[in-house]
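Subgroup meeting minutes
Present: P.N., E.W., G.H.
Scribe: E.W.

1. P.N. recapped why we're keeping a running log of single-chain structure predictions: easier to compare across weeks, and new members can see raw inputs and outputs side by side.
2. G.H. added today's entry (227 aa).
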Amino acid sequence: MKIQNFIFTWNQFVPNAINIESKISKYGKTTVINSNVNEKRNHWINLNDGYFAEQWNTLVNNIEPDTDFVFHIQSDAVVENFDVLYSRFHEITLKYDVGIYAPNVDYTWHKYNIDLLNKIEDNIFEVPNTDCTCWFINTKITKNKIIYDLNTNIIGYGVDWYYSAECLLQNKYILRDYTIKVNHPSHKNYDGDKGNDLFFVWFEEQDDIMKQKMLELMKKHDDYLIG
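Output recorded in log:
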C-alpha cells in the first residue's frame, strides 16, 4: 500500500511542520505545503500566504497516480506516537473497505456520543465526519478532483463533508479510532464567520447528489453530537 503524506503549515507552526516531517517521512513520500511567506524551505511547496483551500487544491494536484491513501495533518496537531497511528491505520484498512480513517481529535466540532454510533470493533466507530485535522483518505475518494474555487471559497471549509459524502456514494467506511488521541488547539488564525459564509456559497456550487449526501451526514452529525 502506497501512502503519500501531506503537512499543511503556516505562521508560527513551521517548526512543528519540520518536526512532523522528520517523523513521518519513513512512511512514504512527504510534502509540506507552506503558507508562511517568511519561512520557506527549498524542498517544500511554498504558497503566497494561501489559506486551507489553496493548500488542499495543491495537495490534490500532487497526488501521484499509484498512491492508495493520502495522509494529511495540520501542523498545529500533536500526535504522540506516529508509529502507533500508522500501525493502526494499516491494521484497520486491511480488514475493512475504508474511505476515511482518522484518530480522535480532542478539539473538533465533531464530538459524538459513541453510544449512538455504529461500532465496527472495539474503539472503532463509523462517524458522519472525522474532522480534517489529521486523517487518511482513500484516493478513490479524492479522485484527484479539485473541489475548491478560490474565487468563492478561499478559507476552505467543506472538504471533510465532501469526502464523507463520497464515501457514502462508494459504500466505504468513515472511521474514527478512539484508541488514538490527537491534541489540537482551539484557536484559529482566520475569520471563522467568513469561513462559514463561504462554506454555504461553496455548498450550493455542488451537484444535487453530493448536496443530498452531505445533508444526510449533517443530519446524523446533529443527532449524534454530545450535548
